[in-house]
Amino acid sequence: MENRILGNTGIKVSELCFGSLTIGPLQANLGISEGAKIISYAFEKGINFIDTAEIYNNYQHIKEALKTVNRKDIVIATKSYSYSNETAEKSLSKALNELGTDYIDIFLLHEQESKHTIRGHYEAIEYFIRAKEKGIIRAIGISTHRIEAVTAANKYNEIEVIFPIINKEGIGIQDGTVEQMIDALKVSYDCGKGIYGMKPLGGGHLIKNVEEAVDFVRKIPYLHSFAMGMQSKDEVDADVSLINYGYIPNDIKQRLKKKERKLQIADWCIGCGSCVKTCKNGGIQLVNNKAVPVAGKCVFCGYCARVCPEFCIKVI
Question: Is 100 helix (H, G, I), strand (E, B) or coil?
Answer without folding.
Answer: coil
